[in-house]
């Protein structure tokens, strides 16, 4: 693979034809310019779906940090833990896109419990197979770790570009003025 050729995450290769569902998680409360970029990225996913490259797409906002009620549901931490377990089993890291950080208790506050904060990327893709929520096949963005210390980071834009190139012989992005990598740096 040349340096200019987009890297396809080997676990979620678009040429692999089993049932593939992509859950796309996006941040809410982002500036309008970033929101437009996210919308364009989601449109690219839908285009791949319409062309039969993926079987299903679900777009959701990231779950909350903590549940405020006793209602059933998962938190952001639950979801990221699932992603981390997949990454650890398969030799990947979720950094730099995902980060956990412990916040010290606030001064002058009675609650002395340290709280963990989870930073998530603006957009992430979770790949599932067999229409089974437990069949997580991959997560993007992620970084492949190797025994030699080399690392390769797979991005959402990179995966989409590679999938579009394989499906349509060229990416859907109209020009280099589109800047999805900006989203993944934040």
From TrEMBL:
Record-linked InterPro entries = HTH_63
* Domain of life, per lineage: Archaea
Give me the ranges of the annotated region Disordered: 167-186
Q: Name one Pfam family in it.
A: HTH_63
Name the UniProt record assigns to this protein = Uncharacterized protein
Q: Which organism is it from?
A: Natrinema halophilum
